[in-house]
Specification:
This protein has 6 helices and 12 strands. The protein is an alpha+beta fold and about 260 residues long. The protein has one domain. A hairpin with a 2-residue loop joins strand 10 and strand 11.
Length: about 260
């Protein structure tokens, strides 16, 4: 096995996964968007944020579910990990892995089937009534606090023992509950939508019209779809999103070990 110590090499593998997902969505008429820091990178840097090393993509819930099924049926070098297809997976969103690699995030509970990956996030409808919205995001905030407190630990170096299995079970059950709550309000019946399991809480909420059409934006050497209302989305998430953060914050938040399996 050959270690991957260069962040640029890691990004190259992620970029190939992005292109695979884009092609699959185009062939099956699925609505796909760059999201989070990946969208910010496309608009501000025309590619990866130089000091960042992960990829976030978003789809309306119906297309998200269909994409997961399509990747699962594909016999290529990519696999999808989600709550529905892997009893050891514990995140409330999906990951598309390059099966020719393995990745271990050093500050997280290990997930044994993880390769270098791209994360897929579902976009769900938001309830019409304000009390229901407040409940939904208060629930999501408590969930994310609980999840992070359990997952951001280095106590479990190996996927062994009762302690590890118990932690995975607790995280899975909490993620299944979060996924169930987030998906209750249908996209097509809502004036507002959000990635409820995203990290920005109510800042995730945008009018559905901002996500109903895509525009092409440059990411590295290809065009990728972005929400037509990406300016509102990015402003809600990052404020003055074209302004670079101070040098002290231009660092990645991830520590990992990665390697090719062959």
């Amino acid at each position: 096995m050959r270690m991957i110590s260069d962040t640029e090499e890691l990004k190259a593998v992620e970029y190939d996964i992005m292109r695979y997902i884009k092609r699959l969505c185009e062939e099956n008429h699925l609505m796909l968007f760059l999201g989070g820091g990946t969208l910010l990178g496309a608009i501000r840097h025309h590619g990866f944020i130089p000091w960042d090393d992960d990829v976030d993509l978003m789809l309306p819930r119906k297309d998200y579910d269909k994409l997961i099924r399509l990747i699962g049926e594909d016999n290529g070098p990519y696999s999808v990990s989600c709550l529905q297809n892997d009893p050891m997976f514990f995140y409330p969103y999906a990951r598309v892995n390059d099966t020719r690699t393995r990745l271990r995030e050093e500050c997280h509970i290990p997930y044994e089937n993880e390769g270098i990956n791209v994360e897929l996030f579902p976009l769900d409808g938001i309830p019409r009534k304000a009390p229901a919205v407040r409940f939904l995001f208060a629930f999501a905030k408590r969930y994310m606090t609980f999840f992070d407190a359990l997952n951001h630990t280095n106590r479990y170096e190996n996927a062994e023992g009762i302690g590890y299995r118990m932690m995975v079970k607790i995280l899975r059950l909490s993620s299944l509950l979060m996924d169930f709550v987030a998906s209750r309000c249908r996209w097509e019946h809502s004036g507002y939508v959000a990635c409820v399991v995203g990290m920005y809480g109510e800042k995730e909420i945008v009018p559905r019209r901002t996500m109903e059409k895509a525009v092409n934006v440059r990411f590295e050497d290809e065009d990728f779809p972005a929400p037509a209302g990406y300016r509102l989305y990015l402003t809600k998430h990052y404020g003055d999103y074209m302004k670079l953060p101070p040098k002290s914050k231009q660092v990645t938040g991830h520590r990992f070990k990665a390697w090719y399996t062959d």
